[in-house]
Design brief:
CATH architecture of the largest domain: 4-Layer Sandwich
Helix content: 25-40%
CATH topology of the largest domain: Metallo-beta-lactamase, Chain A
Number of domains: 2
CATH class of the largest domain: Alpha Beta
Number of strands: 24
Strand content: 15-25%
Distance between the termini: 44 Å
Radius of gyration: 24 Å
Amino acid sequence: MNAMEIKKDIHWVGAIDWAVRDFHGYETPRGTTYNNYLIMDKEITLLDTVKHDFAEVTLRNIRSLTDPSKIKNVVINHIENDHSTSLGKIMELCPKATIYLTEKGKKGLDKFFNTSAWDIKIVKTGDTLSTGSKTLMFIETPMLHWPDSMMTYIKEDRLLISQDAFGQHIASTSRFDSGFATCESMTTLDDAVVDYYANILMPFGQLIKTKIAEIQKLGIEIDMIAPDHGIIWSDPAKVIQMYLDMANGKAKLCVPIIYDTMWHSTEDMIPHIVQGLADAGVDSKVIKLRATPYSIAIKELWKSRGAIIGSPTLNNLMYPTVAQFLHILKGLRPKDRIMAAFGSYGWGGGAVKGAYEEFAKMKLEAFEPGLEVMYKPSAQEEEKSREFGRQFGEKVKEYHSRY
């Protein structure tokens, strides 16, 4: 895609990655974009770079606007590889440009590049840079989602360059939310926001609330948010509210059943659990882990007030895919969700017990006891499965009423 002006004299010069499906272990079925922005002002300024594979793409877009050697300033909001690893090629073309980034960003950049010949300026929240007609203000956002992270606010345009925050993994010919619905639905975009938040930013809910409050306290007005992935927000209020809702633990009264099975015994319990949930008036969704990327299962859990985990027992332990899913979930530190577990075993159980131990480590409320059957569930155990689902459904409704 060619460079595109998003505000007067501010241009998107990024790259679209239609093919990527694995983003550091996070499934990206819609691809992604690496967004960066060029300010054509008295001092030409580049905000962020792109993944090294796409260095020539961003340079082509920059060259369509100016000679890269004329770049005077480079702002690095985030040093993660997908945003900074083409910096070396860019600095070869504008070696006298000044780089602006946080102190922790500088320490991290030193691990990627030999920065000894570069002119680097450390900035903090409230520091500004004038490019001529535009004023850039830097806002540190440590742990959103790396220690080095910051955002850049362009005062005259009321534009927030938000690095990873408010982003989505979507490859699209549309640059703005206002045009996205031409080929896709806004529901797809909303789902991508939740997907991104759940798999990357879930642990940082309190930080997100604090940082949004800090930005509001600075008194800045935002007409547009331009993240480093996905669609640019011409309606920033919507995505800010979505983030606040998620940071506050907002969820739907719904229960995903996330499971795997060995000889179908665990799987055979599910239709009866689903019916029990329906008896309680609670909707559900069934997700088999070997047929579903972990990132999608994480998203579905995050969207819902409660979840049920199903696993057969293998060598007195959870089935490996289920154990790995809970391991990933534990790192994301979910809150305000209630959990339950069920499963089957042959000569000795252990999977259900292991699941509840993981719930306890995550400090999640749990509906106990879980349900475990030996070999194939009998007609009586099928009825127990239905009752298990019904009771959990009632518990989820009670739990949901607190929020």
